[in-house]
Amino acid sequence: MPGLFKLREIPPTAGMSLYLSDFFSTNTNLERGLEIYFDKKTKIRLLSSGTAALIVILNALKKLSPQKDEVIIPAFTCPLVAIACNQAGLKIRLCDFEKESDQLDINLLNEIINDKTLCVIPTHLGFYPQKMQEILSLAKSKNIFVVEDAAQALGSTINQEKTGLLGDVGFFSLTAGKGLTIFEGGFIACANQVILDQLDQSINELASFDFFSEFLLSLKLIAYKFLYNPLALSIVYGAPLRANLKKGDEIKALDEVFSLQIPVRKVGSFRRAVGLSALKRLNEFTSEKKHHAQILISKLKELEAQGLFLVKESSVSIEGSFAYVLVRTKKEQMRDKILNSLWSQGLGVSKAFACELTAYKYLETLVPRISCPNAESLARQTITISNSKYLSESDIDEIIALIKSQIKD
Ligand SMILES: Cc1ncc(COP(=O)(O)O)c(C=O)c1O
After folding, report:
1. Domain count, the chain
2. What is the CATH number for 83?
3. Which of 147, 166, 175, 343 is 20 to 30 A removed from 5 (C-alpha atoms)?
4. Does residue 92 fall inside a structural domain?
C-alpha cells in the first residue's frame, strides 16, 4: 500500500541494540547482575513484564496491610498501571499533576490519601523523575507505601541516587523500547526485608513458567536483534503505525490495546543470559543517551521562542535517562497540528500515551470518571521526540523545520 512504507523509520524511543555475542552468553543470573548495577543492598526479582512486577508488588503490600484497598495513581500514565491495580483487587484513585507540569500535585495527593489508601504509585513519566523527596515524606506522615513506577526510568537519577530505589519498592520494565530489553520483561527492586519476604511469597503464589510463551518470546528477542534498525522498523513498526493512524485509531497505533488480565510469569534462562550480557553496556548506553539528549534539547530550544516549551526539570540534581524528550505546546490545537503532520513521517515523533486514563474507553469500569484538568492538558499538549541514536542532527533539523512550518500556518 503506497504511503505506508518509508525507507527509514526512527523508533519513538531510544531502545538498546543487542549484539550477536549477547545470544551466546551462558551466565543467566540477571537478577544478581542488576543488584551489582544498582550497587546497593537492593534485591531484584525478575518477572515477565513491568506490569507483572507491579501486580506482584500490590498483592504483597495488600497482604501487609489487609485493611487497605485503595491505590493512588497519576491520571496520565500507562494504562497497564490501572490494569495491574485492578488485577490486584484494588480500587483506583486518580491524582492530578501540578499546573503545566509533569509532577504529581502534592497538595492534591495529601487531600486524596485516606484510611483506605494502601500506596501511591508515582510514575517517572517520560524518563523525567518525580520529586520523590516530597512524595516520600508525605507518604511517611500518612503511613502509606510508595511504589515507584520506574518502568521508563532505568538510568535516571535524583541527587545521584538511582530512581526506582527511592520508595519502599520500585519496578522497571525490560520491554522493547525501554532501553535494556529482553523483549518483554520487568523487575522489582526492593531493599526492605519485610516487603521482600512478602514479595517472594506472592511470586510463589502468582508466577508460573510457560514454556510455549517463553519460546515465542525468545524468538521475538532474536528477531529484535535483527529488526531494530531504521530499515526493518519501517516495515514492522512504521507500516502498522501508519495504517492505524489512517484509520484514526491512535490507541492501536501506540500499541495500547491491552487485555485486562495480564499474565504473571517467570523468565527463562536464554532471555536472562541475553539481558545480563547487554546489561554490561547499560552505563555506556545511558551516557550516550544523555549526550544525544543534550544535542536534541539544545536544538529544540529554538522552538521555545515560537510558543513551544520543553518539559524539562531545571534542577541539575535530577537527571532523566531520556529515551525521548517531551515537548509541550501552549495550545492543544498546535500539538494536534504538529502531530498530524509529523507522527507518520518516520522521524520518531509520537505521544507518550494516547490520552489521560479517564479517556480510555476500555478502562471505563476500572478508572473513576473524575476531572483531572492538568493531566488532560499534559496528555493533549505534549509530543515526544525520540532520543534514539538513529535520530541524526539533520533529522532533528528536519523535525524543527516541519514544526516551524506548522506553527506558521
Ligand atoms: C509508566 C509505565 N508503567 C508501567 C508500564 C508497564 O511495563 P510493561 O510494558 O513492561 O508491562 C509501562 C510500559 O509502557 C510504562 O510506560
Report:
1. 1
2. 3.40.640.10
3. 175
4. yes
Residues in the chain, pLDDT under 50: 1-2, 314, 316
What is the structure's pLDDT at 316?
A: 44
CB 176 within 8 A of CB 152: no
Rg, the chain, Cα only: 20
- Is the distance from the beta carbon of residue 152 to the nearest atom of ligand 1 less than 6 Å? yes
Q: Which amino acid is at 72?
A: I
Range of the domain at 30: 20-206
The predicted pLDDT at position 317 comes to 58
Ligand 1 contact, 148 CB (< 6 A): no
Q: pLDDT tens digits, residue range 202-238? A: 999 999 999 999 999 999 999 999 999 999 999 999 9
pLDDT at 309: 77
Q: Quote the ligand 1 centre to 187 CA distance (angstroms).
A: 11
Ligand 1 near 49 CB (within 6 A): yes
Q: DSSP string spanning 318-373? A: EE---SEEEEEESSHHHHHHHHHHHGGGTSSEE-SSSS-GGG-GGGTTTS-----H
What is residue 232's predicted lDDT score, i.e. its pLDDT? 97
Q: Are strands 318-319 and 349-350 parallel, antiparallel or unpaired?
A: unpaired
Confidence (pTM): 0.96
The answer to the question of residue 394 being in a domain is no
pLDDT at res. 85 = 98
In a domain, 88, yes or no: yes
User: Which pLDDT score is estimated for 6?
Assistant: 83
Q: How far is the CA of 262 from the centre of ligand 1 (A)?
A: 12
Q: Atom of ligand 1 at shortest distance to CA of 353?
A: 16
* Contact 51 CB / ligand 1 (< 6 Å): yes
Q: Which atom of ligand 1 is least distant from the CA of 123?
A: 1
What residue's CA is closest to ligand 1, atom 10?
50
- Pocket flag, ligand 1, residue 186 (CB < 6 Å): yes
Nearest to 9 by CA among 391, 397, 406: 391
